[in-house]
Amino acid sequence: MAEALILDIGIWTRGVAPNYATQTTFSPWDFNVPISCGEALNIPGDGVIADDDGAVVVLAAMIGEVA
């Protein structure tokens, strides 16, 4: 975690995991698929805007309206 603080970028986490996915044979990784982040559904193409107060998901169809 100390190394991440040096980067001076926002990091939002509830904790840390001692193991990496590459240390196991179980790798549930994929891309361009819907995911759930907290209680928000994120579809490929959606935007996520975050600051110190929290994060919000912007639907892909609405990105032009908030940009």
Tell me the major beta sheet. 2 strands, antiparallel
Major beta sheet, strand line-up: 1-2
Rg over CA atoms, rounded to whole Å, is 15 Å
Extract low-pLDDT stretches. none
Structural class: alpha+beta
Instruction: Tell me the number of strands.
Output: 4
Helix content: 10-25%
Distance between the termini: 32 Å
Which strand-content bin applies to the residues? 15-25%
Q: Which sequence of SSEs, written as H and E, runs from N to C?
A: HEEEEH
Shape: extended
Mean of residue pLDDT? 78
Number of helices: 2
Describe the structure.
With 67 residues, this protein is α+β, with helices and mostly antiparallel strands. The chain has a domain at 31-67. The chain is built from two helices and four strands. The protein has helices at 2-6, 63-66, and strands at residues 35-37, 40-42, 47-51, 54-58. The mean pLDDT is 78.
In summary, what is this structure?
This protein is α+β, with helices and mostly antiparallel strands and 67 residues long.
Q: What features would you highlight for this structure?
A:
alpha+beta, 13% helix, 67 residues
Protein topology:
Layout: H1 2-6, E1 35-37, E2 40-42, E3 47-51, E4 54-58, H2 63-66
Antiparallel strand pairs: 1-2, 3-4
